[in-house]
């Protein structure tokens, strides 16, 4: 859907797959797949480290707490770096190459900047004036990260036809910046934790333990905003450059039906989510069992 390959368009307008193996050499596949894998490793590492921190702070299951913490931060530091570099970096390079409008929107580039693009750390998209408000940016860094050239030009939204703009530019911009912002915080916290581990001070450093505990929900937020980035970024296309989302709606399903089904799923997942939290909470509270 993001970068369709291995298909042909028949005379009646239908798309059919004509080269199955092309799916595996799709340049979009491997960076996205590895980015997702690294993201799940980040998530599990933070959960394991956070539970370890909880045991140490509560002085319960202390030996297991130390083991969890050590395992969580060793895997956490590796995964947090991998999710940013090379996998996140390669995913971003794919977006700039195959979906340049998306890239302009997610980075908040309204106008092409001559002499190199800045990287925006903070700022709010102002869609009326087509600019970023209250911007804090570092010059030329985005050009360097994208093309390894300080002055490389990156196309702004002004270069594209408005009818192909992502439909929710602020949503896309915020989702991307939250994901990358959290990714940066994950690296910083895991580096601080691993330094403390090497200094043999991790188990006593209260601020690191509290931070790791507090961080448990945030990889889930990063994953969700990553998914938003991919989905909002593809709009207004259902299949990029081939099928617009507006043309993909089924004429036989009414909007009421869709809303009803959606509410059903929201209810079901809310219930399952609550059940999950209660059961996992109980298991964490009980602590690991040993047969020795
Ligand atoms: C730190 C730097 C990061 C960079 C440069 C980065 C880059 C990207 C890019 C460019 C996309 C969009 C790809 C697409 O349109 O398919 C993406 C998607 C995604 N990111 Fe990140 N990311 C970073 C951090 C993270 C973190 C920390 C997590 C979670 C722990 C994460 C999880 C995801 C997920 C789940 C997706 C959706 C992928 C898909 O649907 O195929 N990312 N990321």
Question: What characteristics describe this protein?
Answer:
mainly alpha; 6 strands; binds protoporphyrin IX containing FE; 8 helices; two-stranded antiparallel ribbon; 2 domains; 292 residues; two-stranded antiparallel sheet; globular
Topology:
Layout: E1 7-9, E2 15-17, H1 29-58, H2 62-98, H3 100-107, E3 119-126, E4 131-138, H4 141-147, H5 169-198, H6 206-214, H7 218-234, E5 237-239, E6 243-244, H8 255-286
Antiparallel strand pairs: 1-2, 3-4, 5-6
The structure holds protoporphyrin IX containing FE.
Could you characterize the architecture of this molecule?
The protein is mainly alpha-helical and 292 residues long. The chain is 58% helix and 9% strand. The protein has 8 helices and 6 strands; from the N terminus they run ββαααββααααββα. The strands form 3 sheets. A two-stranded antiparallel sheet has the order 1-2. The protein has a two-stranded antiparallel sheet with strand order 3-4. A two-stranded antiparallel sheet has the order 5-6. Helix 1 packs across helix 6 and helix 3 (100-107) packs across helix 5. The longest helix has 37 residues, at 62-98. The relative contact order is 0.12. The model has no long low-confidence stretch (mean pLDDT 96).
């Amino acid at each position: 859907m993001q970068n369709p390959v291995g298909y042909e368009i028949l005379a009646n307008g239908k798309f059919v797959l004509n080269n199955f193996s092309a799916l595996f050499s799709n340049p979009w596949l491997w960076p996205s797949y590895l980015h997702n894998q690294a993201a799940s490793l980040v998530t599990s590492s933070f959960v394991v480290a956070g539970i370890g921190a909880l045991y140490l702070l509560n002085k319960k299951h202390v030996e297991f707490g130390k083991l969890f913490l050590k395992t969580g931060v060793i895997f956490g530091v590796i995964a947090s770096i991998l999710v940013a570099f090379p996998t996140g970096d390669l995913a971003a390079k794919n977006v700039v190459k195959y979906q340049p409008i998306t890239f302009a929107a997610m980075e908040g580039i309204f106008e092409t900047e001559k002499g190199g693009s800045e990287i925006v750390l903070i700022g709010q998209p102002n869609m009326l004036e087509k600019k970023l408000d209250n911007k804090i940016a570092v010059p030329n860094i985005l050009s360097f990260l994208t093309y390894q050239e300080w002055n490389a030009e990156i196309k702004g939204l002004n270069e594209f036809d408005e009818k192909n703009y992502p439909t929710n530019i602020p949503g896309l911009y915020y989702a991307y910046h939250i994901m990358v912002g959290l990714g940066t915080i994950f690296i910083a916290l895991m580096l601080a934790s691993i330094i403390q581990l090497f200094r043999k001070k991790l188990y006593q450093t209260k601020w690191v333990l509290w931070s790791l505990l507090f961080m448990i929900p945030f990889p889930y937020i990063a994953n969700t905003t990553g998914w938003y980035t991919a989905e909002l970024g593809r709009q207004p296309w259902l299949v990029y450059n081939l099928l617009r989302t507006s043309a993909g709606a089924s004429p036989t399903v009414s909007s009421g039906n869709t809303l009803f089904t959606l509410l059903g799923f929201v209810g079901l997942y809310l219930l399952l989510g609550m059940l999950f939290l209660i059961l996992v909470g109980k298991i964490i509270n009980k602590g690991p069992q040993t047969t020795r």
